[in-house]
Amino acid sequence: MVPISNLTNTLPLHIRKFKFPSPSSSSSPSYRFPLSTLSCSIPQPQPNTTPNSNATSYFPKRGQTLELLCESLAFKGKGLCKVTETGYVVMCDRALPGERFIGRITRKKGNYAEATKLQTLTPPFHTVDAPCVYVPHCGGCKTQNLAYQAQVKAKEEQVRDLIIHVGRFSQKELELHGIMKPIVPCDIQFHYRNKMEFSFGPYKWLPKELLHERNVDGGSENYALGLHVPGFFDKIINVDKCLLQTDPANKVLAAIQECWRDPQLGFSPYNVHSHVGFLKHLMLRSGRDVMTGLPEVMVNFVTSSYKPDLLKVLVDKVSAFPEVVSIMNNVNTSVGNTSVGEEEYTLHGKSSITETLRGLTFQISANSFFQTNTHQAEVLYKLIEECAGIKGDGSEIVLDLFCGTGTIGLTLARSVKHVYGYEVVPQAIADARLNAELNGIQNATFVQGDLNKIDENFGKNFPKPDIVISDPNRPGMHMKLIKFLLNLRAPRIVYVSCNPATCARDLDYLCHGVAELNIKGCYKLISLQPVDMFPHTPHIECVCLLELC
Description:
By secondary structure, the protein is α/β, with parallel strands linked by helices. Helix content is 21%, strand content 26%. It has helices at 4-7, 13-16, 55-58, 148-165, 171-176, 247-259, 308-318, 374-388, 407-413, 426-438, 479-488, 500-512, and strands at residues 65-73, 79-83, 89-92, 100-109, 112-122, 195-201, 224-228, 236-238, 279-288, 295-303, 324-331, 343-349, 353-357, 360-364, 397-401, 418-423, 444-448, 467-470, 492-497, 523-531, 541-548. A seven-stranded mixed sheet has the order 8-7-6-9-10-11-12, covered by helices on one side. It has a seven-stranded mixed sheet with strand order 17-16-15-18-19-21-20, with helices on both faces. α4 packs parallel to α12 (500-512). The protein starts with a helix and ends with a strand.
């Protein structure tokens, strides 16, 4: 086995640029490698080393303008490009495969550079007209102007490349044993999100070509309600309609946009610099009535103080929509940019909405976690159930790590002896217990605890599981948890990942071990199934099945 400290010499240069710290460190993020540009395997070419070569022309300088060709999509949706004259690798946001363009170097990072696209010379392959007017500047769905089949192909290639170069599984191994499955596309490419969060701000952000539209006199005409410009916490693109959220949610957004700037109503958007203002965020959540199947919408106003009389005009306006069954007010007095309030008030209707998933009913409160794409979550959870290989005789124990509100564990509980779920967020555990009660499930136990800080006592409060489900957040699993799983030696692990880079790393540890820590892997990767949960975005979900060797 190649030690991680020597592994970088075997990788393509665009991945080799990352430092792989020792996994022996005890702090949670320290053994993780940067993930900003992990992507398809394109090695950095070497400069011409003949005596007459001009070495400085090979390495571009900051501010330099160059002709670039985008060859693939990298992790997080950036274009992996080459300088046409030298082949030097440059990462560029919003560049698409096949696109030849003029770019300006903005930053140099070791063996690669970053650039901003200035002018397209040749259009990309498989380009389409994006239906959303905000695509050129909004960071919500960067690849909307790329044909959907090309999007999912690029995502599948990213996962394969990471599994090979970070996970250290050979391409021959993946193909010979049929481990890597074709990506599962999403049947619904628009209006699939059941949750959107918009921000209020004192100034609409406008691109240079539209700055003349700004009201020089200031005032409420310039107020913004929308989404953040990528990379900026204080710049907001005003959004009147988002093609990712449901139609009922868009109706609510339009109604609020229509009136909230009226000076007579007295609303002030929160200013993140001066920390003055009332309206902070608008969160819209969509669900379905369990009995009728009709849509339900929750409107959550996040404000800096509790002023129900001031909000009454907005409450009256949006409550007129029959789909709006819940209007909440989260009061967040902190200067942080979070939508979770210290206090929560119900201004209209009920305090939660409902949704069904895999035949179960779930209550969704203002701040509870729920899969953002309900339609594709059905597909994802069915794949998880199939990977788990439940016998169905009620004899098996399931350990559900990072269980959230219990959605995965509860869908399995009907066929097993008992489910034990662990999650760090107290509110999520409370919701999980409520969802178990709501569905009459009594063989599920949910415990609040930080899986990044487990000790030698973890595992003593539940019997040895037959199946482990692990669904960590983007940083993946801590080394403490990986050691625990390797010692536990459960027959099967189903690893569900929202980040293919950390997924590849954790699969490497579980299957190949960690030489520096004298830890041996004891699992075999049986299958890896990419799933496109969020069309037009760079996000990728993976369902992996591991079996004990």
